[in-house]
Amino acid sequence: MSIKLQILIIVVIILAMLYIVNHVRKKSIDFKYALLWLFVCICVLVLAIFPKLLNVVAKAFGIASPVNMLFFFGFCLSIVVIFTLSIALSNLTDKVKKMAQEIAIIRKDMYERYNSNKDV
Question: Which domain of life, per UniProt (predicted)?
Answer without folding.
Answer: Bacteria
